[in-house]
Amino acid sequence: MRGDYLQGVPAARVPGLRGLAKHLVQRQCTESDYGRECMIRCWPRFLSRHLPASTRMVSTRSVTGKQRRNESLLHIAQRLRELPQVEHEPVSSKKAAVLVPLYEDEDGVVKVWLTQRALHLNSHQGEVALPGGKRDPTDADDAFTAKREAFEELGLQPDSVEVLCTVAPFLSKHLYSVTPVVAQVPNDFTPSPSVDEVSAVFSMPLSYFLDTHRHIHWDVKSKTTPRKCYRVHSFDYQGFIVWGLTAQILIHVAQLALGRPAAFEVDHPSNTTSSRNASRM
Questions:
Q1: Which residue has the higher pLDDT, 253 or 87?
Q2: Any idea what DSSP says for residue 214?
Q3: Helices 244-258, 73-81: inter-axial angle, 10-degree rounding
């Protein structure tokens, strides 16, 4: 997300990184409206901008030439098509779907198209998201929903989208069952974003979601299950912040598509039973 994450937060209450961290710990982040607001709006960019270079999480994993060849769009498409075709049960009665549109740029890097939601929308204003939305009663399936929404938001023609696989649904914070539909789109696609829904469109490398470069995370205590925490991931890419459900989906898709695990712990240790690792659809 573009903009100043500290705007609207009293400077006296955020004296510095140490003070912000101490304040969030004291308030437990999830136990007050201010704590949640501070975590959501301040934490991702504050850390990415103010952590000393020596303490930033920088990947030490090198990518070999063979790995790069295996991460071409041709190999990714083949890998995803070979996944078991499973009809996934929704995790909520409220259904939604998002498209994960992959393409290969002129340098052979596989990227995913993302949007920044318009500021006047009723929910998730200004946040980075995958194109998608609620499933209409007349939609034939999740792929239809995802392609319809991508056309409305990006001008992506449905007949130009080649679906590679669908992924087990994720439960959103608003209790929607969100099914990711991974697809290949034309390399020369030029977005025509809807001004009513989208304020910006950009693409970023899919492999970015497995790397620790410009990645941070924090753990949130479950309100329903004692001693259980959920891990929230955030990636800073050219001034855009990709975090929350969108980041979680893309981490999982990247593991499946690239055939290798993330260079960081995806789930909190207390939540490993529900972990979505690269072997699970």
A1: 253
A2: T
A3: 90
Q: Determine contact, residues 46/17, Cβ cutoff 8 Å.
A: yes
Predicted confidence (pLDDT) per residue in 102-115, tens digit: 999 999 999 999 99
Whether the CB-CB separation of 197 and 155 falls below 8 Å is answered with no
Residue 237: CB atoms within 10 A of its CB come to 18
How many other CB atoms sit within 10 Å of the CB of residue 156?
23
The per-residue pLDDT for 126 is 76
Helix (H, G, I), strand (E, B) or coil at 111: strand
pLDDT at position 8, please? 32
Q: What is the CA radius of gyration of the chain?
A: 19
List beta partners, residue 114: 202
Residue 141, pLDDT > 80, answer yes
Alpha carbon distance 153, 172 (integer Å)? 20
For residue 210 the two structure tokens come to 């497995």
215, exposed or middle or buried, with CB in 10 Å at 0-12, 13-18, 19+? buried
